[in-house]
């Protein structure tokens, strides 16, 4: 089990023209959005809380 699977629960995944958007809920209850691009590039995240992000 990875650290993220212990701290985040995936709510939905959506295919977009830019990549896959993943909505998840942090262990503390905060929403998080990740964009995993189709092309080479860094994933983009929005919304991780400082406490749960530090657990990664």
TrEMBL record:
Top-rank taxon: Bacteria
Protein name: Uncharacterized protein
Organism of origin: Actinomadura graeca
